[in-house]
Write a structure and sequence with these properties.
This protein is an alpha/beta fold. It is built from twelve helices and 14 strands.
Length: 457
């Protein structure tokens, strides 16, 4: 598309669109955002802003209760910092009343705060107990498959082959052979003669003491499941029983713990599939994390306390790789995601490369620089293509997709908005990478996206 829109003076230059992205796949997606009722679009203050915007661009907002375990705190034990709402009120809001066992690893210890697990979850992982909202993905039973992605993720190419295999619809064995499957110490055999219930990647970067037998969490930014209310209810029961060993902290079932995010999503999901679900009931698939949920991570440990990409010059950067793989193997060159070209990945997750809306520099001085800049550039390309689509007159957008439902979508039609879109594309920072959306490195250098004007009356 090289022509001008009849409703604007903005040129459509497809060379600025995603470079490696594939064309639309055969599966139709419906986009949902699952929110705690406290973040509902009906809330007038800033807490409802995100959901309102997602609603304005065509997403369906689902209100779901926070699946957070809650112990009843007797009045005499309640501390002023943790009793802002009554137990009954929180139960009505969707919290789970916990029936903690009187004996065993998860029993309450003498002197322990009765709400310790909930408080532990509050500061766990990236987002605390809100991570458990992701479990509601299992509740999307109106769909054959449901894909959970964090907001800082991007689909680069269609996942048709993976969906075919998960649904048992692959045409032949070549489709299975083409899938990028993990073959690591924790990876389990998969029965491809049966439909697959879950596909995931593991977060080897979060393991504190790597070994072939160390528990490894499922990465919380990516999960594909066959929705099931039965499975969702099993998670509720796990939380209700409070099956997380706290003293000492050994994780869910005294097994799944000792890594980042172990108290919430990244720990409870592997606990369910590997320890709770009836043997043989599920068929789950660990995917190659360089291809799906690609984070451009270093497979080796670093002398720096936080995972770092391999430095080009260790003396200049002040840290270096250790001769130890994060998955416990001696040789992990086959999972060197920091060197994986963007054209080979199917989805990406902006963690180590940092966020596009922070105008990330892409880890300069490391081998990950080219990969990160390539992935970041794809994100800016998607923004450019989406804006160009919104700039089309409504009938042209519908005709371009052969989908009459697009006549109900939002577009840019106010001339002031169109002018602002043009202005937002004039950033001076490396236009070949940042597509005109950045003036400098950092959040302050980012040129925010204009929201659509809504339906034209």
């Amino acid at each position: 598309m090289q022509s001008q829109s009849s409703s604007s003076s903005v040129d459509f230059d497809s060379s600025l669109w995603p470079k490696y992205g594939g064309k639309g796949g055969k599966y139709r997606y419906k986009a949902y955002v699952i929110v705690d009722p406290q973040a509902s679009p009906t809330i007038k203050d800033k807490h409802g802003d995100c959901a309102r915007f997602m609603q304005s661009i065509g997403w369906t907002v689902l209100h779901r209760p926070p699946l957070v375990p809650l112990f009843e705190i007797p009045t005499a034990e309640a501390s002023s910092g943790h009793s802002s709402a009554s137990f009954d009120d929180l139960l009505k809001a969707g919290y789970i009343g916990v029936q903690r066992p009187k004996t065993g690893d998860t029993a309450r210890r003498p002197g322990e705060h009765p709400n310790k697990l909930r408080m532990l979850m509050y500061n766990d992982g990236c987002c605390g107990d809100t991570e458990l909202l992701k479990l509601h993905t299992y509740g999307l039973v109106g769909h054959e498959l449901a894909v959970h992605l964090d907001f800082d993720s991007l689909i680069l190419r269609p996942m048709d082959d993976l969906f075919d295999v998960m649904l048992g619809k692959q045409k032949d064995d070549k489709v299975v052979e083409s899938l990028s499957i993990a073959k690591l110490p924790q990876s389990k055999p998969v029965d491809f003669s049966r439909p697959i219930d879950a596909a995931f990647t593991r977060d080897y970067n979060s393991v504190k003491s790597p070994s072939p037998k160390s528990p490894v969490g499922y990465q919380g930014g990516f999960l594909i499941v066959r929705p099931s209310l039965t499975v969702l209810e099993r998670y509720r029961k796990i939380l209700q029983r409070g099956e997380f060993s706290l003293n000492p902290r050994k994780g869910w079932g005294n097994k799944q713990g000792g890594f980042y995010g172990d108290a919430t999503f990244q720990g409870i999901v592997p606990y369910y599939y590997e320890d709770v679900a009836p043997p043989g009931e599920h068929n789950e698939l660990e995917l190659d994390r360089c291809i799906y949920n690609q984070m451009a991570d270093n497979p080796r440990k670093s002398t720096h306390k936080f995972p770092r990409a391999t430095p080009l010059d260790p003396q200049v950067m002040g840290y270096s790789d250790k001769n130890k793989c994060r998955d416990g193997r001696k040789d992990c060159r086959d999972t060197d995601c920091q060197r994986t070209h963007p054209k080979d990945s199917i989805t990406t997750h902006f963690t180590f490369c940092n966020k596009p809306w922070d105008c990330s520099s892409g880890l300069p001085g490391t081998v990950a620089l080219d990969t990160c800049l390539g992935l970041l550039s794809e994100w800016y390309g998607v923004r450019r293509e989406l804006e160009d689509w919104w700039l089309l007159p409504r009938n042209e957008a519908g005709e371009a997709t052969n989908d009459v439902s697009f006549s109900q979508r939002s577009f840019y039609w106010n001339q002031r908005t169109i002018d602002r879109v043009q202005q937002k594309r004039q950033g001076s920072l490396q236009p070949d990478v940042y597509k005109g959306y950045c003036d400098g490195i950092g959040e302050s250098g980012y040129r925010n996206m204009m929201g659509p004007d809504g339906l034209k009356k």
